[in-house]
Amino acid sequence: MEREFLSTSELAKILGISRIAVFKKIKSGRIKARKIGRNFMIRREDLPEILGTSLGKNDKEIIERVVRKTVKEYGQTLRLLGKE
Questions:
Q1: Neighbours of 7 (CB within 10 A)
Q2: Are strands 5-7 and 34-36 parallel, antiparallel or unpaired?
Q3: Element (DSSP H or E) covering residue 6
Q4: C-alpha–C-alpha distance, residues 72 and 59, integer Å
Q5: Segment 45-70, tens digit of pLDDT
Q6: CA gap 60, 66 in Å, rounded
Q7: Which of 21, 17, 15, 19 lies closest to 47, judged by CA?
Q8: Cα–Cα distances in Å, from 16 out to 13, 30, 48, 68?
């Protein structure tokens, strides 16, 4: 069973950076972390966001807007291409 949290050392190893760099990212707010005792712990479920592999709400809205515009402007052409 996987643990719910990663230590700063584990995250540093995954990201290929130093623990100090992880601490700086936590301090600047770029990485969300919880202080448990004297250690910072990072939720494992936040890993995709940290790695940049998840889409935020704003990203999803931009993609939806672009898709709607494309379908509106090129809908008929897309349907014809889909029949090929």
A1: 16
A2: unpaired
A3: strand 5-7
A4: 20
A5: 999 888 876 567 787 888 899 999 99
A6: 10
A7: 15
A8: 5, 16, 15, 39
